[in-house]
Amino acid sequence: MLGNGTVEVVVVPETGRVMQFQFAGETNGPFWENAQLAGRPMPEAPWTAAHGSFGGDKTWPAPQSAWNWPPPDVFDAVPVEVRAVGDTLVLTSPVSPRFGIRTERRVSLAPAEPVLRIQTRFVKVSGDPVEVGVWVITQVRDPLAVFLPIPSGSRFPLGTTTNWGVPSGVMTRSGDLLRLTRDPKDSHKIGNDGTSLVWIGRDAALRIDVPRVSGGTYGDDGCSVEVYTNPDPVPYVELETLGPLRRLRPGEAMEMTNTYTLFRRVLNDEEAEARRVLATGGMAPR
Fold it and tell me: Are 138 and 261 in contact (CB under 8 A)?
């Protein structure tokens, strides 16, 4: 665990994940933790165990079309090594037999602020060159709403790609902001070429920011941020960030950094709260 007096981040090497990000001394952080798997070792095939994964924050290689399903080897279902380097925790995976890639994730907190940064690095160790991008998936608790800002000049007229269809009844647009709620009966996915995602809970809000590389080639119809909602009986939502695709050769590496900012809820209106969170920038008031 890392803490700075304001927030704490919980890392569980046995699951290969950052399992929670929460205010210091509290236990109701926004990351989803699967109660059915609490305290248990990683199943051999977690996605076929009828449990819906462990929760928390993890990394996969993009695009999914490079591996289809289930997630490949070290990217989802193996323990990682953790070491402390100053105030940073470094999570290192084994080398993927399929991709010849080792993942390295550097987890750190801003001094005294409710801000977490995770740098995810893919290191190509062996095998043939492969075109991949860094993909980070943060499973969060069922929100009141998730908001996806639409960047100025977005390539998507609807504010989202139509790769996975357009959700009906659970998505609305207000100017430059998409609002999505979880459908208990069906899964949905949206995404665009923006740089931020906002989760709104009853007492807190979470903002995730990722840089978009100008001129970069992105998979998933050019998306750099995405939201997936899972139906009952496993009530989680995924906030996903993606880096550009690049052909990686042995000895080469690529990286992407997510910034996670935790906020206390201030406004009752969810859209107004999301706009407040987005206007605050990368640092949140305590």
Answer: no
